[in-house]
Amino acid sequence: MATNRKLRKISDSTIHRLSIYYRALLALEKEGYDTISSKELAKREKLTPAQVRKDLSFFGSFGTRGLGYPVKQLMQEIAEILGINRAWNVALIGVGNVGSALVSYKEFAKQGFVIRLIFDNDQRKIGSNHKGIIVSDVADMASLIPEHNISIAVITVPGSAAQKVCDGVIESGVRAILNFAPVNLRVPNDVFLRNENMAIELEHLSFSLRNQEPMIAE
Amino acid sequence: MATNRKLRKISDSTIHRLSIYYRALLALEKEGYDTISSKELAKREKLTPAQVRKDLSFFGSFGTRGLGYPVKQLMQEIAEILGINRAWNVALIGVGNVGSALVSYKEFAKQGFVIRLIFDNDQRKIGSNHKGIIVSDVADMASLIPEHNISIAVITVPGSAAQKVCDGVIESGVRAILNFAPVNLRVPNDVFLRNENMAIELEHLSFSLRNQEPMIAE
DNA sequence: TAACGATTGTGAAACCATTCACAAATATGA
DNA sequence: TCATATTTGTGAATGGTTTCACAATCGTTA
Question: Helix/strand/coil (H, E, C) string of B5-45?
């Protein structure tokens, strides 16, 4: 059981790596491993053994000295820590290119994130069927979102509309948002916001390429 | 001019924020601002004034004491630092749901990232036209990528195929990769890799929701 | 059952990023 | 032209994350 220890300030990086460990363990299980050492796990993910152990130690002690961590069990522990050992109802707002792609994205549902509602403000899209889900009018968010017990909203509308949509979903009671629009959304302190901004990632690559040669001057 | 100072170890966070500043400045310019203080800029992006100044100071001194930073000029400086004051040729590998969405994504080209080539291994897709670009066979990467002067590869193939595709584009001379496949790619040290993994972001949200109440036990 | 090798869990040390605080520089208004 | 208010740029202080290093523990083998 994922223990309730004093899990006060867990850093974003640690949570991020937990996701990475989880994927690694999935692969290890498939490959037939029963146990895995922090050393081996770290090597696979280009991390350090100490980091793996420290990350896990925030949540409990899951390993056996001299042996390592039990693959299956650790997977379950991490799933529980991350909250992915259950289903979350998701609403998708905006059925443009990105939105449509996400509806068909299988990894989504595999991890327990189930798209229950799809919204758009385009009359031509409202009522249409996307993978079995009828597109609703954004105007109906306030009633539909609580009704369907939605925990997470995924925003895939154009940047210009994003803040308004964001305010709307929060109004409807959503407290976790994944934003694909290329803008910085403003949310209250009790709302969790994550951004997926491919322009920023490309700019990072562009920076790296431009500064390839360490550029030591002066 | 973006100066060539001793820009040795710039942290990822700083580069990330540079992208954020750039977007903020775009908006400020539209709103008619000529200058902006670190205080104001920080307030808009929920950062601290000191952070803004420190970030910028790694690259030069662009402000005027008592006044602030000139909006237009600072934008250009950052564009130069990030390397987005020019065009980069991009190849897209994999025309599934995500790949198709990216081809139509306008922000892409706006920032100077121009998709020149599209690859797939599905015979039914090869030869088809996506927004004016004919889909090529992945088997032809080795010749086409150098020919078209591609700097960045965007990988949108299923996880199972991603590592092989990754090895292929590196073989063809690409040194910057944006990976959408939900796997940890292995690349040599001189290749820049960024990951866009929406499952991980969702898991982060899931973690936050699950631990909403600080969970102080023991 | 005892001895050995392996590996965890974790304080302490080292490292890195952020914030503080203030001198230096500039704009502005009298 | 001078005094005042503002804001930058940056060393120093702080706070946070990663790595180190080792005692504690366990499996294995003789």
Answer: CCCCCCCHHHHHHHHHHHHHHHHHHHCCCCEECHHHHHHHH
